[in-house]
Structures are given as structure tokens and as C-alpha cells.
């Protein structure tokens, strides 16, 4: 079993999310999906945005790195005109879907909107499109996602990430062993 902690606004989570299913299947490993919010963790460090925005040199490097890695993995890529994109509603829906068979497909759809199509993802229309494409009851799931109970559940999930020492996304856990970054996905799976 591998725990996959991710955020829809995270460009490196995009790389991992688009690959993790196939890699986990190859290793006969179950994925435990753990959506969480990066912004509160960044705020705890005194940051008001992504380090890729706060440090321009790092930001320039990251966009070139993303283009290379997407080419390597055969993934579509378009640098977002807005980064990091707010993703509260799709993250709330992902929390609902974490143990559902549609989870991976929903997440891929949202990630493609953000990082392959350069579209806003934090709105009812985008989330409805993703859910409808999977023939899911979009209105009911969105209403449930926006409930106070689910909002609190996402806050608690983010607090759990922080308590485990997560400082970025994607992060993987194999038992108590933490692996950070898309480039550590294979290492985590090999450990299993």
C-alpha cells in the first residue's frame, strides 16, 4: 500500500497523478488517495504563495523542468497562466471520492484541465464537467462536497498532512517512510 498525498494546484502532483495508477498496478500495490491543501502548510512557513512564485529563479527552472518531464512521460503540458491555481472545490470532491472507483479518473480530468488545457478548475462548471464525463451525479456530489462536514474533513486531512511532516506535494508514504516529489514515486514503489 502506498499513500499518495497530492494537491490539484501542484504541478509535480500532476506528473505523479497521471502515472501512479499504471506504476502501482505494475508493482501490485494499492493506492490510498490523500488529497490535502498546500496553502495552509505554506502559510505555516510564512509563505503567501508557492516557492516557485516566491523565488523567480526556481520558477523559471520549474517550468522548463515540467516541459522536459512531460515530454519524457508522454503527458500533455501547457504552463498555467495562473499559478498556483486555487482548487478548493475539486479538492473537496476528491476527498469524497478518495475510496471510490472513480477517484483516479476524476483527478486526471481535473489535472488535465489545469496543466494541459490551462483552465480554471475551482468552479462548479469545471467540476461538473469532470463528474459528468464519468457519468456521476455532479449536483449531488458538489452539494455534498460543499457541506460543512466535508469542509471540516478536508481541513482535518490537511492538519494530518502537517502532523506527518508533509511540506510539499506530491508526498508518498510507505508505512512511516516518507518520499517527497514526483521523482521519488518509483523509489517509494520499489521499497514496497
Mind explaining what this structure looks like?
- The chain is α+β, with helices and mostly antiparallel strands.
- The chain has one domain (2-191): 3-Layer(aba) Sandwich (Glutaredoxin).
- It has 10 helices and 4 strands; from the N terminus they run E-H-E-H-H-H-H-H-H-H-H-E-E-H.
- The chain has a 4-stranded mixed β-sheet, with helices on both faces.
- Helix 1 runs antiparallel to helix 6 (103-115).
- The longest helix has 18 residues, at 56-73.
Task: Provide the descriptors you would attach to this structure in a database record.
192 residues, globular, alpha+beta, 4 strands, Glutaredoxin
Describe the secondary structure blueprint for this structure.
Elements: E1 2-6, H1 11-26, E2 31-35, H2 38-44, H3 51-54, H4 56-73, H5 88-97, H6 103-115, H7 124-133, H8 138-145, H9 148-163, E3 171-174, E4 177-180, H10 185-191
Parallel strand pairs: 1-2
Antiparallel strand pairs: 1-3, 3-4
Helix pairs in contact: 1-4, 1-6, 5-8, 5-9, 6-7
Amino acid at each position: 500500500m502506498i499513500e499518495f498525498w497530492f494537491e490539484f494546484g501542484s504541478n509535480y502532483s500532476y506528473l505523479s497523478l497521471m502515472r501512479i495508477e499504471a506504476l502501482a498496478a505494475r508493482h501490485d500495490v494499492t493506492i490510498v488517495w490523500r488529497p490535502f491543501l498546500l496553502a495552509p502548510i505554506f502559510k505555516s512557513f510564512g509563505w503567501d504563495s508557492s516557492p516557485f512564485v516566491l523565488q523567480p529563479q526556481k520558477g523559471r527552472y520549474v517550468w522548463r523542468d515540467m516541459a522536459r518531464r512531460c515530454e519524457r512521460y508522454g503527458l500533455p503540458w501547457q504552463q498555467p497562466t495562473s499559478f498556483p491555481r486555487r482548487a478548493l472545490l475539486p479538492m473537496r470532491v476528491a476527498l469524497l471520492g478518495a475510496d471510490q472507483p472513480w477517484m483516479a479518473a476524476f483527478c486526471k480530468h481535473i489535472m488535465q484541465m489545469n496543466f494541459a488545457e490551462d483552465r480554471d478548475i475551482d468552479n462548479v462548471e469545471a467540476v461538473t464537467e469532470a463528474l459528468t464525463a464519468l457519468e456521476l451525479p455532479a449536483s449531488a456530489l458538489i452539494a455534498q462536497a460543499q457541506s460543512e462536514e466535508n469542509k471540516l474533513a478536508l481541513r482535518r486531512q490537511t492538519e494530518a498532512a502537517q502532523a506527518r511532516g508533509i511540506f510539499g506535494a506530491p508526498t508518498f508514504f510507505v508505512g512511516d517512510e516518507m518520499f517527497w516529489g514526483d521523482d521519488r514515486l518509483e523509489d517509494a514503489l520499489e521499497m514496497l
